[in-house]
Design brief:
single chain; about 280 residues; alpha+beta
Length: about 280
């Protein structure tokens, strides 16, 4: 992380040290938080559009444009209006992986019923491997998490021995997510360079998000991708950011306001996340 040397008055120094002691944070953490607030540049922040429960209930209307999503983050994942494919936000661009396998860069006016993004500023850079399957990937990523009660963003780059993904296609209007998942397209790529865009969410977030690990893949040539089902690699470069600020934007559409979302949807969501 870059270092900055500044001169500040003695009175501010005392206030800074007092605030750090009272909040049990380092002086650097207090200064960074103050600068972020003053400069209106949020850091370590998750911005989420709608809830996973709304998706499970079949609320797929486009709620927020890609342009608006990119104002809140340059890295993340989601889906598109009508459940038309998987969203991968990477390096400030948003890509759409459709059920046909086609990958294209989304236009600014494309819309999403669900998305989770952050302004990615990794605090950790390392390497992991070998990775034999999805569970191994989770275990490698676990070593970079120091808490089960905050969110994390993971970026993994390199050459993959095998990547298995899926992409949903638009279902009948109002169909629940579990029904839409029954006809998803699945793809297997071998010896391919690319990037995993991942988020880890704590267990308590299962009421509104995808708890645990959630990865989307995008190949280096931007021709292949999707929601990650399985993976194998000898070694990957990994970057990690801990996320401690969460913002949820709830839709105001009639479909969302009238949807039945009081039931526990964890089982349906887990089914939709897996291979079929």
């Amino acid at each position: 992380m870059p270092q900055l040397t500044v001169n500040i008055p003695t009175s501010l120094t005392a206030a800074l040290e007092r605030t750090a002691a009272q909040s049990d944070r380092s002086t650097s953490a207090v200064v960074i938080a103050a600068l972020a607030q003053y400069l209106e540049h949020p850091i370590h922040t998750v911005f989420q559009v709608s809830t996973s429960g709304a998706l499970v209930a079949g609320v797929y209307d486009g709620e927020v444009s890609v342009q608006k999503i990119l104002e809140h983050g340059n890295f993340g994942l989601g889906t598109f209006a009508g459940l038309d494919g998987e969203m991968v936000a990477l390096d400030g661009r948003v890509y759409q992986v459709q059920g046909s396998g086609r990958v294209s860069e989304a236009t600014g006016d494309a819309s999403a019923p669900f998305a989770v993004v952050t302004e990615f500023e990794p605090e950790i850079k390392s390497s992991v491997g070998p990775i034999g399957n999805f569970r191994h990937l989770e275990e490698h990523c676990d070593q970079f998490r120091f808490s089960d009660n905050i969110f994390y963003a993971f970026r993994l780059d390199g050459h993959f021995l095998r990547v298995r993904t899926r992409a949903v296609s638009p279902p009948e209007p109002g169909a629940r997510l579990a029904d839409a998942a029954k006809v998803q397209s699945e793809f297997t790529f071998e010896h391919i360079a690319g990037t995993l865009v991942g988020l880890w969410s704590p267990g308590f977030s299962s009421a509104f998000s995808v708890a645990g690990y959630h990865f989307h893949f995008l190949s280096a040539d931007r021709r292949h991708g999707g929601h990650l089902l399985d993976v194998a690699a000898d070694a990957l470069q990994v970057e990690v950011e801990s996320l401690t600020d969460f913002h949820l934007a709830l839709p105001e559409s009639e479909a969302f306001l009238k949807a039945e979302m009081s039931k526990n949807t964890a089982d349906e969501l887990a089914y939709a996340e897996k291979a079929h």
